[in-house]
Design goal:
Elements: E1 2-8, H1 12-23, E2 28-32, E3 35-40, H2 43-52, E4 56-66, H3 71-83, E5 89-97, H4 107-116, E6 120-123, H5 133-138, E7 143-150, E8 153-162, H6 165-173, H7 187-200, E9 210-213, H8 220-227, E10 231-235, H9 239-256, E11 262-265, E12 279-284, H10 298-316, E13 320-336, E14 342-345, H11 349-355, E15 359-361, E16 366-368, E17 375-384
Parallel strand pairs: 5-6, 5-7, 9-10, 9-12, 10-11, 12-13
Antiparallel strand pairs: 1-3, 1-4, 2-3, 4-8, 7-8, 13-14, 13-17, 15-17, 16-17
Helix pairs in contact: 1-7, 3-4, 7-8, 10-11
Length: 386
Amino acid sequence: MQKYYVQLGNTPELSIQELNSILGQKKVVRVASHICLVKLNDDESAINLIDTLGGSVKIIKEIAKLKNSSPEKIVELVSNYLLQKEDKKIHFGFSEYGRDHLPKIDYFQIKSKIERGGKSARFVEGSRLGLSAALLIHKKRIVEIYIVQTADGVFMGETLASQNIDLWTLKDRGKPYFDKKKGMLPPKVAKMMLNLALGDNPPIEGRKNILLDPFVGTGTVLIEALLGKIDVIGSDIDPLSVQGTKENLEWLKTKFKITNDSKIMMFDATKIPIQNSEIQYIVTEPFLGKPRPNPSKLTLIFKGLLKMYLGAFKHWTNFLADGASVVIVFPLVSFKNKNGKVIEYNLDKLIDKLTSLGYTTLSKPVLYHRPNAVVQRQIYRFRFNK
């Protein structure tokens, strides 16, 4: 087994849950705030993994553990490693993680040693924490070397794979129907939520592995599920969302040659006419209220949201399969009043009511929100048993 470091994205807690769901908790070790150590069979497995994940940026292959991590030794080891590359001109980036408390390694010394070794070298400058995934995707000749410092020592690695930022941009902005006021769930978060659901209830060959999104928005969740070869049903009370999602799925099927089944309906989330116990997954972001609600109306707003969520969860018991997985966003609003006291509005009261309906929480909620967002997202995982 080979060691690899996974660089997590902007929501590391959610990214770790996603990794645990795909690889198993025992195979994932967090070694820094945004770095996890995993063991995989080979490089091909690592490259395939980054394409499966929504919440991770890069996979870095461990090359060596440094017995001596002095700047001089690091420069020597990195230079010698790069000199072994077949290219006559070395394009390299150099990144350090977990070493903010130490002086930067002088990349010019690495460049000079490579040139003294008989090859030309070009340093590609970026953040100390690494080059952008977009740059690595578009400039494939760049070799990015990482020095990762953890509690277990200092390691040298090379970036093996980066997320396909072009594909994420296409799925986010390339689809025909897009509305900033609807479907605000980013594709990467939708992918992570899908992976959590699939990890909690792995698809079984020969079984109907159908996913339902009862608040379909612009179809972001359905797009990720169809790309993952899962049959989907989408529903929404808004006719524009229903029509727009249909357009987006037609675009997807043409663009990516999707063959899995999809069905889009216009219904309230508490009245979707699905028969039998055939839904294995619900992955969704319901209506969370206005992005910037009036603080004086929050009590009334959350009372209405509680009623809507409870009604939906009750209705879903009519068609969820035994052992079905539900990954869903709950709203959270937190602010300080005039006296400096933190006031929080959430749907915690809902959890006990859901237990009596057959829903079991599988983990603590993970908080996700955009910078400066008033309404934050709590991502919950449930298992349903009749």
